Amino acid sequence: MLRAVVLALALVCALPAVSLEPKAIAATPKRKKPFMFIMGDSNIWGHLGRQMQPSFERMGWRVYRRGKPYSGLARPDFFDWIDKTPFLIRSLQPELVLIMLGGNDAQVISPRKGQTFTPIAWEDEDAWTAEYERRVEHLVTNLASGGATVYFMSPTNRKPIYARQAMHRIIAAQRRAVERSGRARYVDLYALTSHPSGEYIATEVVNGHEVPARYNDGIHLTPPGAAALRDRLLPQVLACRPLPIEPPFEGMSGEMMELLAPY
After folding, report:
1. Residues 16-50: pLDDT tens digits?
2. Could you tell me which CATH number the domain at 32-243+250-260 has?
3. Whole-structure pTM over 0.85, yes or no?
4. Domain residue spans in the chain?
5. Residue 7: which pLDDT band, with cuts at 50, 70 and 90?
6. Fewer CB within 10 Å, N or C, the chain?
7. Cα angle at 71 between 220 and 45, to 5 degrees?
């Protein structure tokens, strides 16, 4: 059943996945591990990134993770991902890039170095959205410049009403910019952290017990919440990006091995 889900996801990928022919695998039994770059805000610095990194490493990836709490695209005066990514991509030369930003961006947009416009208030929706989409496209272009497959991951759903409403604008702008660029796939983590009713997932079941999926702020993921999101996220990534190695994967449950097995 799980394998069928992964196969179904593969059929809807917007960009072609890379495949390995059986003869090529047999001819190179000691293949060099492919390189992955995971980057983003406090989610990547924190529990989600810490859950994802070892999972991909067990699958045979070399992983470099760079998380910067409070970062995004709105305040380059604090941290400018667009400025830093060309050097990172040239240095790391990753085959796969996962990026998660946006949760901190519901605020004034400050000009980047070389820009001369007056800071754009969040309330000026049209001007704010236009500049934000330009930044997303610029960032995606940087990340894909070395030929990497890029996944741009949205912010999660969250408890505070204002924060939740703000994410709707940010996610819509990110999705339009990513799809317009044609150089990345957009992954909707908002949907993966929501009940069918649209409410955010506040608890997860671990060993038969309900445990908090978020801290008291209703935004940041707890370790169980991050692990659950990782398990929902991996099939969407792997459906469009074949594994670099074959199972078995040491330390994984039988269900997880079935889910991640080559299809």
Report:
1. 433 334 444 444 445 578 899 999 999 999 999 99
2. 3.40.50.1110
3. no
4. 32-243+250-260
5. very low
6. N
7. 55
